[in-house]
Amino acid sequence: MASTRAATDRRTHIVGWGMAVPERVVNNHDLCTMVDTSDEWIRQRTGIVERHIAGEGETTFSLALRAAQAALEVANLDPAQLDLVVVATVTPDYAFPATACLLQDALGAEGAAAFDLSAGCSGFVYGLSVVADLIAAGGYEHGLVIGAETLSRITDWTDRNTCVLFGDGAGAVVLQANGAPGGILASVLGADGSGKDLLIQPAGGSALPASIETVQARQHTVQMDGRQVFRFATRIMPDASRRVLAQAGLSVQDVSLVIPHQANDRILQAAARNLGIEEERMYSNLSRYGNTSSASIPMALCEAIDQGLVKRDDVILLTGFGAGLTWAATVLRWSLPLPVPVPSRQMAFWRSLRYRWAQLRSRWRRWWRWADAHLFQILYDEEGRRKRRKHE
Ligand code: COA
């Protein structure tokens, strides 16, 4: 599927960004105490040196909330102005309700629709494309797109083939409609479900519901055919990138910076070679975070912006691949002057009040629902008819 936004005046721009990672860092040497591996092997074969791993009480939602609040701070936006909250994740807090709903409630985004999106490591770019199109179509003004994961919760820590690769984190962007030139220019999304077994969490769904046997067989953890995924990635990333650039009427030479999904430095090097782009234009922070699935692209984008690698009018290419199999690429022209002004204290204070208020409102609603259910039983019968008093 491809979409281009060149024909309309209404465009979608990134106006806020933020990321969050757990405090706890696990380096390659730590992993050597858990599985038969070495720092040298992990560095040479993947480029990863360390990763952040969620601590007790930290979840996909709590990381997403921190990233979202940071992005709203940069956008200087009242969460009540959000129309859409989309969380791309393969490690939601619950199968349902959606992590996006927890976030909508915690942010006090009272007017926002909220849903999760599952497209493996391509999830963030899928979300970005969907929300950008919804905003450009005219129905919505502001959207929040988050890629957030706690992959450590579905990692088999006895499997050296996978446990060295993954990390936890979240990245968020705020999208806004306006008529300024630039913004999201085009997207290419794709899937090939015949590759479903190459990267899969087999149990816990309707195909293999949770049971003692599935837990004992470690079927609730990531299973991967690394070599096949590697081959797929090196082919699909350049292919999707070329196609999205063609959609936007641009060439590889126009691209200032590529923000690829951070899976393996050798995949990034192969993609750079294949695209004919110098490695310096291919952003990598893989060594510090590992593969954080749908969080990796927004986290890399945040760091690239904060390191001054993004300037106004730059063409930025986001490209990813993942479980499904899926792939996605988006090209955008950066439209915001950088650095953004520090938000006024008043507005920052207002947002902190909004978060407090959202907490209270949530508690109050839960209490009211409980009270309502009990009052309802006293006053009404099962069919909703008001009960008659004895003397009536
Ligand atoms: N430490 C030491 N040795 C390891 C190891 C580890 N952590 N993991 C695997 N090995 C071993 C293998 O057992 C194998 O040994 P053998 O030859 O005796 O069987 C050997 O190293 C080579 O394995 P291979 O699978 O060929 O390694 P590789 O060079 O393909 O690298 C990956 C493995 C997983 C790093 C690589 O295939 C990869 O990055 N694939 C893509 C994964 C990915 O991106 N997944 C997420 C997609 S979103």
DSSP strand count:
14
Rg result: 22 Å
Q: Multimeric state of these chains?
A: single chain
User: What hetero molecules are bound to the protein chains?
Assistant: coenzyme A
Helical percentage: 25-40%
- Note the total helix count: 12
Main beta sheet strand tally, sense and closure? 5 strands, mixed
Mean pLDDT: 93
Distance between the termini: 66 Å
**Topology as H/E string?**
EEEHHEHEHEHEHEEEHEHEHHHEEH
CATH class of the largest domain: Alpha Beta
The CATH topology of the largest domain:
Peroxisomal Thiolase, Chain A, domain 1
Q: How many discrete domains?
A: 2
| Low-pLDDT sequence parts | none
Order of strands across the main sheet = 1-9-14-13-12
Beta-strand residue percentage: 15-25%
- Per CATH, the architecture of the largest domain is 3-Layer(aba) Sandwich
CATH superfamily of the largest domain: Thiolase/Chalcone synthase
Write a structural description.
By secondary structure, the chain is an alpha+beta fold. It has two domains: 2-333, Peroxisomal Thiolase, Chain A, domain 1 (3-Layer(aba) Sandwich), CATH 3.40.47.10; 345-375. It contains twelve helices and 14 strands. The chain has helices at residues 28-32, 39-46, 60-75, 99-107, 123-137, 160-163, 212-216, 226-247, 265-275, 286-289, 296-306, 345-379; strands at 2-4, 11-20, 25-27, 50-52, 84-88, 113-117, 142-150, 168-178, 183-191, 199-200, 223-224, 255-260, 315-322, 326-333. A five-stranded mixed sheet has the order 1-9-14-13-12, with helices on both faces. A five-stranded mixed sheet has the order 2-8-7-5-6, sandwiched between helices. Strands 3-4 form a two-stranded antiparallel ribbon. Strand 13 (315-322) and strand 14 (326-333) form a beta hairpin. The longest helix is centred in the C-terminal third of the chain and has 35 residues, at 345-379. 47% of the residues are buried. Bound molecules: coenzyme A (COA).
